[in-house]
């Protein structure tokens, strides 16, 4: 049976699985659905067109699904939705906004750990097994791929893509795409510092796979010539595995936009 604290406010149309726990002071909108095993601690707000999967845990004062932070977006303007997968942890005061487009969705995958005060803007895509440390701020339209680790107070410019199993050091300001498997730090512009060996181990890559990624990094970032030229040269080599191909593809895609943000090429406004 669903456990709802007496002080919580739950909209009549809300759909809660039988074992959902709703703590004191929570507010759940009438168009929200929440899957089995999910826990809402005190003062969590989930409103709007939000679909939450199974076994998620929202710690106190999370705000999920409120209107995007856009100056020109009126209070009556139609907006889209937010979809959250399974097994995510959202620590205190995490905020996630839905899509600004009526037919769009912000998407959060499964197995993510979103820490205190982190923010995910409208129309973002978060894949799986991501760690976002305290006060990470992700602007709208960003994509954060599987296994990414964003350290404290990292900021992402809108339309940035952060490649899978990469790592951003604390205080990094990321305004260009980050290829998979790499370490990035600094800001405006950020700098690639090396290969995220710890991330490769978390991902379960074999020694041979890791070696190929390290060798690709040296050819891309430690040879003379531009990064794009180095990527094109590497692409011509035989026997490249899918992980090295992913690095090359990310570099090639980001070069299609003058500021190195591939997703900007799909910008609607």
Describe the structure.
It contains four helices and 28 strands. By secondary structure, it is of the alpha/beta class. The protein has a single domain (3-196), classed as UDP N-Acetylglucosamine Acyltransferase, domain 1, CATH 2.160.10.10. The strands form three sheets. Strands 1-4-7-10-13-16-19-22-25-27-28 form an eleven-stranded mixed β-sheet. The protein has a nine-stranded parallel β-sheet with strand order 2-5-8-11-14-17-20-23-26, with no helix packed on it. Strands 3-6-9-12-15-18-21-24 form an eight-stranded parallel β-sheet, with no helix packed on it. The model has no long low-confidence stretch (mean pLDDT 97).
CATH architectural name: 3 Solenoid
Strand order of the largest sheet: 1-4-7-10-13-16-19-22-25-27-28
The CATH class, by name, is Mainly Beta
Helix content: 10-25%
Task: Determine the mean pLDDT.
Answer: 97
Which overall shape is indicated by the principal axes computed on the Cα atoms? elongated
What is the end-to-end distance?
A: 46 Å
Number of E strands: 28
User: Beta-strand percentage?
Assistant: 15-25%
CATH homologous superfamily (4th level) name? Hexapeptide repeat proteins
> According to CATH, what is the topology?
UDP N-Acetylglucosamine Acyltransferase, domain 1
Class from helix and strand fractions: alpha/beta
- Helical element count? 4
- Largest sheet descriptor: 11 strands, mixed
Low-confidence stretches: none
As a whole number of angstroms, the C-alpha radius of gyration is 20 Å
Number of separate domains: 1
